[in-house]
């Protein structure tokens, strides 16, 4: 999140880090990046730097439909990241286990805390172009991930082409003729959606058709990250490190690869050469469409619900506007 939380006392969070992770940390310095979680950087008494993440359980519908289910999904996702790292996937930035071995702990009904080693390097950003050599390095990284031991996926959900929050979005599209009073940006969101309601419905129908067509084709399921875009990559002296593993799931490899697809055959051919798997162009298109509709659903829920006007909600409205107008840049420019 770009704006710090108003209802999470930082001193109490630092106390949880000291108690649950037995780290001698002082204060927490807010790190204004990302969405769906709050972040801080802290230094322990031994000099090590740590990245503290507080996940908002109300902003992760892909993990469950209520806070308890989302927390259970978060435990599984972060646990899988630890398993991947332990199995030798050094590019995985996994959370440090607590003193009881858990990857995350709940600090209240709505929030969960996790602690990660701070990775030294240069972070990327959404829409950042990638040189051909770096694209090949990333492809190799994803091939390694997709070749991970299948048993590691046992506790992970199987992700298809379902839009998280689809039912809420469908309901919302039927209530655009009445004012929204959730917060200062609710009406702007409603008017924006009203102008694009027919297009959204068309995109949802297209996704349904693609999902139906792909159901009959079959596909190998692999462990996927779900969001391997530049904003989740850190360039280190050893190569790329991949962060934000709350979206890890078993799925078609196209769930990861659509982000690197540039409408040419190069990325597809390179992945097939490295992995031995052929990518399905229809599945690549479907996952790209799914990403856009997931953003539409998530930002709509956020802006229709009670909220304050700050850098996060303004960013949500801006991305929603660009997405509906077809102006949002592709992940890698």
How does this structure look, described?
The chain is α+β, with helices and mostly antiparallel strands and 333 residues long. It has two domains: 118 residues, Phosphorylase Kinase, domain 1 (2-Layer Sandwich); 211 residues, Orthogonal Bundle (Transferase(Phosphotransferase), domain 1). It contains nine helices and ten strands. It has a five-stranded antiparallel β-sheet, with helices on one face. Helix 3 packs across helix 7. The chain is globular and about 55 Å long. The protein starts with 9 loop residues before the first helix and ends in a 9-residue tail after the last helix.
Distinctive features:
alpha+beta, Transferase(Phosphotransferase), domain 1, Phosphorylase Kinase, domain 1, 2 domains, 333 residues, 41% helix
Write the SSE topology.
Blueprint: H1 10-21, E1 29-30, E2 37-43, E3 49-56, H2 67-86, E4 105-106, E5 111-117, E6 122-123, H3 132-146, H4 166-173, H5 186-215, E7 222-224, E8 233-236, E9 239-242, E10 249-251, H6 254-257, H7 266-275, H8 281-304, H9 311-324
Strand content: 5-15%
The structure class reads alpha+beta
CATH class of the largest domain: Mainly Alpha
Instruction: Summarize the biggest pleated sheet.
Output: 5 strands, antiparallel
Q: What is the average of the pLDDT values?
A: 94
Q: How many discrete domains? A: 2
Distance between the termini: 23 Å
CATH superfamily of the largest domain: Transferase(Phosphotransferase) domain 1
In what order do the strands lie side by side in the largest sheet? Answer: 1-2-3-5-4
Helix content: 40-55%
Level-2 CATH architecture of the largest domain: Orthogonal Bundle
CATH topology of the largest domain: Transferase(Phosphotransferase), domain 1
């Amino acid at each position: 999140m770009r704006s710090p939380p108003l209802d999470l006392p930082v001193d109490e969070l630092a106390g949880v880090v000291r108690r649950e992770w037995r780290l001698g940390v002082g204060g927490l310095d807010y790190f204004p990046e990302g969405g769906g979680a709050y972040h801080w950087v802290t230094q322990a008494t031994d000099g090590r730097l740590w990245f503290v993440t507080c996940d908002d359980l109300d902003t992760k519908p892909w993990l469950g439909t209520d806070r308890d289910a989302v927390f259970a999904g978060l435990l599984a996702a972060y646990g899988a990241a630890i398993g991947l790292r332990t199995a030798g996937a050094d590019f995985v930035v996994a959370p440090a286990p607590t003193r009881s071995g858990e990857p995350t702990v709940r600090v209240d009904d709505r929030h969960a805390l996790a602690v990660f080693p701070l990775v030294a390097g240069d972070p990327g950003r959404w829409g950042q172009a990638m040189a051909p050599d770096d694209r090949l390095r990333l492809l190799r990284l994803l091939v390694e991930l997709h070749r991970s031991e299948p048993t590691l996926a046992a506790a992970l959900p199987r992700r298809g082409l379902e839009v998280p929050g689809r039912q809420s979005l469908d309901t919302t599209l039927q209530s655009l003729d009445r004012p929204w009073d959730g917060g200062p940006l609710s009406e702007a969101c409603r008017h924006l959606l009203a102008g694009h309601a027919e297009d959204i419905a068309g995109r949802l129908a297209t996704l349904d058709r693609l999902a139906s067509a792909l159901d009959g084709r079959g596909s190998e399921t692999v462990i996927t990250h779900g969001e391997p875009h530049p904003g989740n990559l850190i360039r280190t002296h050893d190569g790329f490190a991949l962060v934000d593993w709350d979206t890890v799931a078993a799925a078609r490899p196209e769930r990861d690869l659509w982000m690197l697809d540039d409408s040419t055959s190069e990325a597809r051919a390179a992945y097939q050469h490295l992995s031995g798997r052929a990518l399905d162009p229809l599945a690549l298109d479907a996952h790209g469409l799914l990403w856009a509709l997931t953003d539409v659903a998530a930002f709509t829920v956020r802006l229709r619900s009670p909220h304050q006007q700050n850098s996060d909600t303004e960013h949500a409205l801006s991305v929603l506007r660009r997405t509906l107008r077809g102006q949002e840049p592709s992940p890698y420019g």
